[in-house]
Write a structure and sequence with these properties.
By secondary structure, this protein is mainly beta. It has two domains: about 45 residues, no CATH class; about 60 residues, no CATH class. About 10% of the residues lie in helices and about 35% in strands. It has a four-stranded antiparallel beta sheet. Strands 6-5-7-8 form a four-stranded antiparallel beta sheet, with no helix packed on it.
Length: about 120
């Protein structure tokens, strides 16, 4: 696909699959990663994911409990299936902080891992 002109820009095919439709239509168009397949429900999904610079866990704390957004790197080598943050949060006797979105980092502590919660805007 390299060298094909589409919507007035140069297109370069990218090996991989679109995270929105699963199709092999990823291209770089005008310096943006997009899916070129017409059936794709969100052609900009791959570019949006890679543009997000978050490398830590983001945790939503609310009255029902918590939800975790894992960093993309945990998708590699099955690391997401062995993430210990979920168990660490479930083991707490109560909410670790007020309701909100937090960047959670783990640092080595005296008795194992310490969790640091940074409130996000």
């Amino acid at each position: 696909m390299s060298g094909v002109r589409l919507r007035g820009g140069r297109v370069m095919a990218v090996r991989g699959r679109c995270p929105a439709c699963g199709g092999p239509g990823l291209v770089v168009l005008n310096e943006r990663l997009e899916c070129s397949l017409p059936r794709c429900p969100r052609p900009t999904a791959a570019g949006e994911l890679f543009a997000d610079g978050e490398t830590e866990h983001v945790v939503l704390l609310d009255e029902r409990g918590f939800s975790i957004q894992h960093p993309l790197i945990e998708r590699l080598d099955g690391a997401l299936m062995h993430c210990t943050l979920h168990q660490a949060l479930r083991a707490l006797e109560g909410p670790p902080a007020a309701p909100g979105y937090y960047r959670v980092t783990r640092t080595a502590g005296v008795d194992g891992w310490d969790l640091d919660f940074e409130l996000l805007p």
